[in-house]
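ok, trying the design again with the full structure, not the truncated one.
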């Protein structure tokens, strides 16, 4: 019996294959639409793994490294081969690392060489000194009698004067200012600006008498005294040192155990000698500079970087952290810096105003927004925050939770 012959039309077979392939594609497409496709970027996955690993190493209790190398060495010890620059970039963005970054090695301060006219700006201070009531060296009474000395210095000419006081009352201090400024033989007159500390002796009657003569008072906080009251502080050091050296010279000739407490006898001669001595920055004595209309002095600070117009500066609205003064963040009344205090401000601020000193050139001064301090800052005292700081992860609360006793 013969086998039946099957004839296949090639054209119809080709069309059938096309239809089968087309239906298979539609079926695969529908299947693909039903199952979501996840595309994973290998670089982003690596960055995420890196961030999680760095978080685990840095925020553990024994972590919180103070420098980049410490964290990088911990990564290598844990078996990670992260690049140093990647570790640095991650650590620089952490908020906890930012506020404990090291202090800048060099901070340029503004100089007083821009003040050129006599009686434009005065600095004053009240110092406590051990004296006797009379001029004679009375050593029988060992009870200390404290006198006070009001020191005044002109910032342009460096001319200095003083008045002895018996108390720190604002009434007596106001009378002392009046006796200095109303003396026709004294080159010092009522200034346009008076810089002093926040002591009570410079309030009350002192404020009233300064208002009568249109004198603005700028009260300097203790934490900024080293920059804003440098001249009168140096004057006070010289005054006390030379006065006490004279007292020690007298004590060498006195019986053992007896002390000299007089200073009024030679204080005036000491200050007159200081006013006759040539100053280093002006090249003239204060007595000679009081005869000039304008006094030009060299800057008191040598700058190791471009300043003024040539200085690269930040723009307004830049987000920054500012360098904290000792005891500023914790409001320590003794202005002490503790090892636990942050170095840079935990709060973020914006730059509100920029002042560029041109003649003579000065470092660019930055003023912050209303929530920040009112004093100006130089570039080294500001930390530029380019991106949003990264806060510690939430799991830190679970690992380092502190049990706080609730008050009844």
């Amino acid at each position: 019996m013969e086998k039946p012959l099957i004839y296949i039309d090639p054209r119809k077979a080709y069309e059938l294959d096309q239809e089968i392939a087309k239906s298979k594609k539609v079926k695969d497409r529908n299947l693909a639409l039903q199952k979501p496709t996840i595309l994973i970027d290998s670089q982003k996955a690596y960055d995420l793994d890196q961030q999680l690993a760095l978080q685990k190493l840095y925020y553990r209790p024994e972590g919180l490294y103070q420098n980049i190398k410490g964290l990088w060495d911990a990564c290598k010890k844990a078996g990670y081969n992260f690049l140093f620059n990647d570790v640095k970039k991650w650590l620089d963005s952490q908020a906890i690392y930012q506020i404990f970054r090291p202090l800048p090695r060099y901070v340029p301060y503004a100089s007083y060489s821009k003040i050129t006219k006599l009686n434009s700006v005065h600095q004053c201070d009240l110092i406590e000194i051990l004296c006797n009531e009379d001029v004679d060296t009375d050593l029988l009474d060992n009870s200390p009698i404290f006198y006070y000395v009001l020191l005044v210095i002109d910032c342009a000419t460096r001319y200095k004067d003083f008045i002895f006081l018996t108390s720190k009352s604002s009434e007596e201090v106001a009378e002392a200012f009046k006796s200095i400024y109303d003396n026709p033989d004294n080159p010092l007159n009522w200034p346009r600006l008076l810089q002093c500390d926040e002591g009570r002796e410079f309030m009350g009657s002192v404020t009233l008498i300064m208002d009568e003569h249109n004198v603005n008072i700028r009260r300097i906080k203790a934490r900024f005294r080293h920059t804003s009251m440098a001249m009168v502080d140096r004057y006070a050091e010289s005054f006390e040192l030379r006065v006490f050296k004279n007292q020690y010279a007298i004590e060498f000739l006195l019986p053992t155990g007896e002390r000299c407490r007089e200073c009024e006898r030679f204080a005036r001669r000491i200050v007159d000698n200081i006013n006759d001595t040539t100053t280093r920055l002006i090249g003239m004595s204060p007595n000679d500079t009081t005869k000039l209309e304008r006094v030009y002095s060299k800057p008191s600070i040598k700058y190791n970087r471009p300043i003024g117009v040539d200085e690269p500066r930040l723009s307004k609205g830049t987000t920054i952290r500012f360098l904290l003064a000792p005891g500023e963040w914790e409001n320590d009344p003794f202005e002490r810096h503790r090892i636990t205090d942050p170095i840079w401000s935990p709060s973020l601020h914006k730059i509100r105003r920029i002042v560029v000193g041109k003649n003579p050139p000065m470092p660019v001064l930055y003023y912050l927004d209303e929530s920040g301090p009112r004093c100006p800052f130089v570039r080294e005292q500001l930390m530029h925050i380019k991106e949003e700081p990264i806060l510690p992860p939430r799991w830190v609360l679970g690992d380092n939770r502190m049990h706080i006793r609730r008050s009844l």
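Keeping the full-length input from now on. The two ends are 110 Å apart (CA to CA).
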